[in-house]
Amino acid sequence: MANNGVTTKLQKEMSMLQEELSQLHVEIDSKINSWLKDFNDTIKDEICTELHSLFEQYFGQNSSSTVVETSLDKGKGILRSPPSRIPSKEHLTMSPLPDP
């Protein structure tokens, strides 16, 4: 009968330790998720900044406001026929930027 009291006490202590361990897991998971979110946000910001910088470097200062948009005219052309889709012979030429 003496062992019965010891077993009950050990079971209670084990139960308390398991609860503490569960709480630690929750706290650690919460901290890890917070760190990962901060890391993700930081990386996104750095990538956006770097891409913006590269676009400015290669396409000029107003890259965000300069959008080239080509749309197909679905209307009728001369003599009610679809407009011809002859590609332009003009090519986009870019001069290299001087090294800073």
Descriptive terms for the model:
single chain, 100 residues, mainly alpha, 1 helix, 58% helix, rod-shaped
What would you say about this model in short?
With 100 residues, the chain is an all-alpha fold. The protein has one helix spanning 2-59.
Task: Write structural notes for this entry.
The structure is a single chain. The chain is mostly helical and 100 residues long. It has a domain at 35-63. It is built from one helix and no strands. Mean pLDDT is 76; it is low at 63-73.
Q: Which spans have pLDDT < 50 for at least 5 consecutive residues? A: 63-73
Count of individual beta strands: 0
What proportion of the residues is helical, as a percent range? 55-70%
Mean pLDDT figure? 76
What radius of gyration results from the CA coordinates?
33 Å
Outline: rod-shaped
Order of helices and strands: H
Distance between the termini: 87 Å
**SS summary, helix count:** 1
The secondary-structure class comes to mainly alpha
Strand residue percentage: under 5%
Sheet bearing the most strands, described? none
